[in-house]
Specification:
31% of the residues lie in helices and 28% in strands. By secondary structure, the protein is of the alpha/beta class. The chain has a 9-stranded mixed beta sheet with strand order 23-24-17-20-19-18-22-21-25. A 7-stranded mixed beta sheet has the order 5-6-2-3-4-1-7. Strands 8-11-10-9-15-12-16 form a 7-stranded mixed barrel. The longest helix is centred in the last third of the chain and has 29 residues.
Length: 571
């Protein structure tokens, strides 16, 4: 049986907590987020405003290579601004480039600031191309040079069409050079000192007043201290080829000077201690180093010589040497009437040159090439000779040489210069002598001599092969045999030998007569060496026959002389 169930107990509601209200006066941290965002926005706005510089206008003749919102303005590879837009001027003569500059560049924008478009260039030498090589990849950009400090602020500028050669951040000095011609130099060409590039050519223009070319060069510091009043500049463009005692010598300053030209300079000994020449000083630009070397030594003694032969290969700057040592250089060449005694009115080449004894002689011996010393050398047959310095190139030079047998010549004066006698000993004179010898050789009648020689040989052949000479030789041979037999018989019995002597003499005379008749009939070489030798031989044979005859007569009259000898009083 089931137990009765209990009734459910009543549910009781839990007691809810009660809220107590109180007033809160503190700061909530949630407000830091919007505050930080506001500060960040303010900072960004301030930074953008501080970095954003003024907008400037730059005028160029063309906008070639420039692009809006892309082309940058750079100084030392640091970006200082960006091109915002490019406008065409109202008169269509140029373009106006608007550039937004950075705030840091505000102090650089003065009336001394220069702008130009950096792009690859072939003009102005290799330096312009080298400075713009990076634009081949990154494109053109606007370069800026702030110039020297102290300028007036401005925002409108006129851009340069070519890059300036001198930068405000590169110290140095600018000098002027005057030259007769430009000689291959171009803007940007290097300037060398002891084969080191120390500067470059800024510009070159024709001077209307002096009718010369004025060249502006820039020499970087500290090399500009080597430019002194005695400095000599010369054009070192291209390369030179010399063929001297050391063989073929090719001299090239640099590849850069070969393409764009170049200028080199040098100082005399001891000039390095002199004060530096101030900027904008004017110097002469010589055509080559030999001409510039004239000024590297003290003032030389001027001399003049006259030549009446070809001087091709001799020019200004040609060397004047003695015993292979250079003593001076040629300064001028003219074609004038010869004023020397005995040559008046004749055209001659007047060669002016200077001798600088300090090139080769000590201070004690330098007087030997001046005044009385030079007159004494001329009296000892010192002459000025036009010599060839290179058979390959045809270059010539003047040489002071002692010429034995040269005619005496006085030492005259011509203004400040001394006239030294000259002597022709060049290849031209040798060629003339060889030509005279050739003319004499050509005048020899070889054909006639050959014809006479053929006739003489034919006559000799007839003479040798003729019966007359054969008979003469046979007679002579017979006579000589009998002489030999006579000598043998004389050893045993003298009387038979004596009886045969007259007959032997007659045979010898007959042989001589036959030989003379043979050569006389042939007509061979009456004045030849062979004929003269035969005449002498025949004369000797005749004398021998005569001697034999005389001996025979004597022995017939005095046979006792074979035993007792010849007496002194006998004939």
């Amino acid at each position: 049986m089931n137990a009765p169930s209990k009734p459910p107990e009543p549910r009781t509601e839990p007691e809810l907590p009660s809220a107590t209200l109180r007033e809160n006066h503190g700061f909530s941290w949630i407000w830091l987020l919007p505050l930080a965002a506001l500060c960040l926005v303010g900072y960004l706005a301030y930074t953008l405003a501080s970095e954003r510089g003024p907008t400037i206008s730059i005028t160029f003749e063309t906008a070639d290579g420039l692009s809006a919102q892309q082309t940058q303005v750079k100084y030392k590879a640091v970006t200082l601004g960006t091109v915002e837009r490019i406008e065409l001027a109202d008169d269509l003569s140029h373009v106006v480039v608007k550039v937004r500059m950075s705030g840091k560049s505000a102090d650089l924008l003065t009336d001394k600031t220069r702008f130009w478009v950096a792009r690859p260039r072939l003009g102005g030498g290799l330096s312009a191309l080298q400075s713009g090589l990076e634009t081949l990849v990154s494109g053109a950009y606007v370069a800026v040079d702030p110039g020297p400090p102290g300028g007036t602020p401005q925002t409108d500028f006129k851009g340069l069409e070519t890059p300036p050669s001198v930068r405000s951040d590169e110290p140095g000095s600018v000098y002027l050079l005057n030259a007769e011609q430009l000689g291959g130099l171009s803007e940007g060409a290097p300037v060398f000192y002891r084969d080191v590039s120390v500067g470059e050519v800024l510009s070159a223009e024709l001077n209307d007043k002096s009718n010369e070319v004025s060249v502006r060069i820039f020499v970087r510091s500290p090399y500009d201290r080597h430019v002194v009043p005695e400095t000599r500049f010369w054009n070192s463009s291209g390369f030179s080829v010399n063929t001297g005692a050391q063989g073929l010598h090719v001299e090239l300053q640099s590849l850069k000077s070969l393409l764009s030209g170049g200028i080199a300079f040098r100082n005399p000994a001891g000039a390095e201690l002199h004060a530096q020449s101030p900027p904008e000083t004017t110097f002469d630009l010589y055509a080559d180093e030999p001409q510039a070397e004239i000024g590297l030594y003290s003032a030389g003694v001027p001399y003049v010589s006259y030549f009446q032969s070809s001087i091709r290969g001799l020019g200004k700057g040609s060397a004047v040497q003695m015993f292979g040592k250079q003593l001076g250089s040629v300064t001028d060449i003219d074609l004038v009437k010869d004023p020397r005694p005995g040559h008046q009115g004749q055209l001659a080449a007047r060669i002016a040159y200077v001798l600088q004894a300090e090139r080769a002689l000590d201070a004690v011996d330098r007087s030997a090439l001046q005044g009385d010393g030079m007159r004494s050398l001329v009296q000892n047959q010192l002459r000025v000779v036009l010599a060839s310095s290179s058979l390959l190139t045809g270059q010539k030079e003047l040489s002071l040489e002692f010429v034995p047998g040269s005619k005496s010549a006085p030492v005259a004066s011509e203004g400040d210069a001394t006239v030294l006698p000259s002597e022709g000993q060049d290849l031209t004179d040798l060629t003339a002598s060889l030509s005279q010898i050739a003319n004499k050789v050509n005048s020899i009648p070889f054909e006639e001599i050959g014809s006479n020689a053929n006739k003489a040989l034919a006559s000799l052949d007839r003479t040798v092969g003729g019966p007359e000479l054969q008979n003469a030789i046979a007679s002579l041979d017979s006579a000589l045999k009998e002489v030999g037999q006579l000598a043998r018989e004389a050893k045993t019995d003298l009387q038979p030998a004596l009886s045969r002597l007259p007959r032997i003499s007659e045979k010898l005379e007959q042989a001589v007569d036959q030989a003379e008749a043979a050569f006389g009939q042939s007509g061979y070489g009456s004045d030849s060496k062979t004929q003269r030798s035969l005449d002498r031989m025949m004369s000797q044979v005749t004398d021998a026959a005569r001697s034999i005859r005389l001996l025979t007569d004597y022995l017939n009259r005095h046979p006792e002389s074979l035993v007792s000898g010849r007496k002194e009083n006998e004939p």
